[in-house]
Amino acid sequence: MSLFKARDWWSTILGDKEEFDQGCLCLANVDNSGNGQDKIIVGSFMGYLRIFSPHPAKTGDGAQAEDLLLEVDLRDPVLQVEVGKFVSGTEMLHLAVLHSRKLCVYSVSGTLGNVEHGNQCQMKLMYEHNLQRTACNMTYGSFGGVKGRDLICIQSMDGMLMVFEQESYAFGRFLPGFLLPGPLAYSSRTDSFLTVSSCQQVESYKYQVLAFATDADKRQETEQQKLGSGKRLVVDWTLNIGEQALDICIVSFNQSASSVFVLGERNFFCLKDNGQIRFMKKLDWSPSCFLPYCSVSEGTINTLIGNHNNMLHIYQDVTLKWATQLPHIPVAVRVGCLHDLKGVIVTLSDDGHLQCSYLGTDPSLFQAPNVQSRELNYDELDVEMKELQKIIKDVNKSQGVWPMTEREDDLNVSVVVSPNFDSVSQATDVEVGTDLVPSVTVKVTLQNRVILQKAKLSVYVQPPLELTCDQFTFQFMSIPRVIQCKFRLPLKLICLPGQPSKTASHKITIDTNKSPVSLLSLFPGFASQSDDDQVNVMGFHFLGGARITVLASKTSQRYRIQSEQFEDLWLITNELILRLQEYFEKQGVKDFACSFSGSIPLQEYFELIDHHFELRINGEKLEELLSERAVQFRAIQRRLLARFKDKTPAPLQHLDTLLDGTYKQVIALADAVEENQGNLFQSFTRLKSATHLVILLIALWQKLSADQVAILEAAFLPLQEDTQELGWEETVDAAISHLLKTCLSKSSKEQALNLNSQLNIPKDTSQLKKHITLLCDRLAKGGRLCLSTDAAAPQTMVMPGGCTTIPESDLEERSVEQDSTELFTNHRHLTAETPRPEVSPLQGVSE
């Protein structure tokens, strides 16, 4: 139970798809009952009028049949309801209902019920006025100082104030300079009407001035006739508030002073009778309604303000005293006495959610039972503690709290990728250079066993792939859970058949333990020629221009992938390994394995890191320079403004030239920042591809398990997006330093080292490159990646005596002996095999 949540005393939902506004709610003793209890009167734009008298059996109960005293269909939309002394000859309270073209006054009387349905109300029409103009809102009061009765003033949509003295029409006046109607209120202390015009200013008109001004029926007469028929309508005072007003209210809790409260779109004003500002409050949210309701101390007034964040704020003047959360957005709020409970807050939403609530908390009546004391058996406690610690340790190792079967039974996500491309591409950019960009449809199916309150489906693909829609929300699990489903996209989505190339700058060779497989059977849709002499060579062409060549050895069990760009090798390399594993699984071969016997290409990887870091530093310098030029631009603007405001003309001293030059520099720097951000995004995408390749090669080199590969991916790929505040370099450096300190540490001294808890952009990348090299060195010497702290001791590992280099192609195939002392040159290399990776290079993750 939250302290800052409105306590639901009574609530109900009004009608079906009905609409309400701030004038549709009123609280008053409309049936003139002897106990003085207020009733809730609600009118809707659908024409229904309802009167409630809540009597909940216990707090939080919904509406019962006996709570509804009256429900009647008035056939016309109800714009506003008010209760006052509207009938002559009596001081009893009557109900005034404003329609768009009619004003009706009703007498409401209560009758005691003889059956279980309780009390009822009857409504009788006393009189009505047919309006010649479309009404907007109304106000009432003792206009002109009359005693014992209330007069009604209606504001029309075209700016006319129509005054009714109960059963008779008095006069009508047009407001000067009118454009759109605003809120209307009456001040009995100054005998004046207050409204907020379209000029965003509060205007006050004396009732006497309205009464003696030119009659509205003579507005169309000539100017000479108007001058002779009455006085001109003159405003008493105005105040410019600089925004449109939502509501206006006049309160007076003592006879000495009254206050005018105006609720704006972003500010809350309190004015004196003469239009001077008493105080104002700037609001940090968008208000929806307000109500000044009481004065608890001398000279202060409490105000309720509702907003569009489902919150109700209580202010004492400009000081926030309380904030409470509501289940809906209130458009009208009232305070009254219901069922002998004073200070009940009644709120109404635009869709008919009517709630009576109060602030604070409910008292807790629960008392904990006495626990029978018994002697403690410490031996049993030790045994139980060991069992619980074992269970906790097992759970931490399994990396999950709930069993997988239970989660899959509650909610299951399945993905089906269409085998064919869309006939009409849904890509944002249909062409990349001379290549057409295809699109494919992915069907996601959710199967649930439990009721979902609000399910959110997110789909993620790695750049540069894009989605037409990545967020889905279904309005239909008591425990929050996350289900992931990984799926592979077709390679042809970003890759086309290309011409193979014999020369390339970057090459990678993958060893296997089985006979080579024809590339035509592995990549059936990418064969440019079907000749037998070309089955061991295949070319690929990325959308955008990059070309990759795959060569399969005829005599050895090796595959070579080569390209002009280092980062382009990852996608085809990973796809080749996945397709080889799928091929041998279909053949029933279970001992198939891939390995990598070459040096880890850290030098090429470090070049991409340096380029990415250089763009980050460049972006930081450009932003600092842009900030300096912006400050200079504003300073020149202030200096020019001061010169222009000066009454005595003075020379500008080339300030205009300096302003123009600074403006051009700001525009040029902004373009440079935008260009650098685009280059940084492309560099980060290339860096992620190269990182995937390095992780794949390390996994093949050291025969890492799936869990160890996941640890490497979490350390090297912690961010999906790169920003200036939190970048890839400092995040990866912290993660690798943690691995070197824990599971890959040499001694307990390294484990005792304290790492910096703050992630700041480094001065250079030398420390990061040193840590990456050290990580490969520790893995080569037998280090094991794990998350548990008890596995930090290094393990011994049998090192191979030597490795054989892979020839460039089958035409120049030859054997080269290599000494074991050259094994770790160029950042070390070993031979290893790995199980099948879980994630495809063209992957999508739905959750």
Describe this structure in words.
It is a single chain. The protein has 847 residues and is α+β, with helices and mostly antiparallel strands. It folds into four domains: 5-216 and 232-360, Methylamine Dehydrogenase, Chain H; 409-489, no CATH class; 493-596, 2-Layer Sandwich (TATA-Binding Protein), CATH 3.30.310; 606-781, no CATH class. The chain contains twelve helices and 43 strands. The protein has a six-stranded antiparallel β-sheet, with helices on one face. Strands 5-1-29-28-27 form a five-stranded mixed β-sheet, with no helix packed on it. It has a four-stranded antiparallel β-sheet with strand order 2-3-4-6, with no helix packed on it. α8 packs antiparallel against α9 and α10 (728-741) runs parallel beside α12 (766-780). The radius of gyration is 40 Å and the shape is elongated.
